[in-house]
C-alpha cells in the first residue's frame, strides 16, 4: 500500500469514520479487559510515561507532545544568553 493510500485511509477512519465509533464493549468484554490489566502497573501520567520511555532512553518522537515541548524548551535555553 502506498504512503498516500495509508494517509488517506488513516484520515477517513478517524472519529466517526472509525468502525467502532460510538460503540462500547459489552460488559463481558470489559470484564475480560479489566481482568487482564489488573496488577499491571500503568504510568500515572502521560508525562511520566514520556520521562520513562523517551527521556531516560534518549528517544525522541515527534508524535509525543512532551518530546516536542522539551525540544522547544532546550532550544530556547541554548539560544538565549
Ligand atoms: Zn516523549
TrEMBL record:
Any Pfam family matching the protein: NUMOD3
Region of interest: Disordered: 1-57
Domain (Nuclease associated modular): residue spans on this chain: 1-32
Residue stretches of biased makeup (Basic and acidic residues): 1-14
InterPro entries found in the cross-reference section: NUMOD3
Protein name according to UniProt: Nuclease associated modular domain-containing protein
Organism of origin: Gordonia tangerina
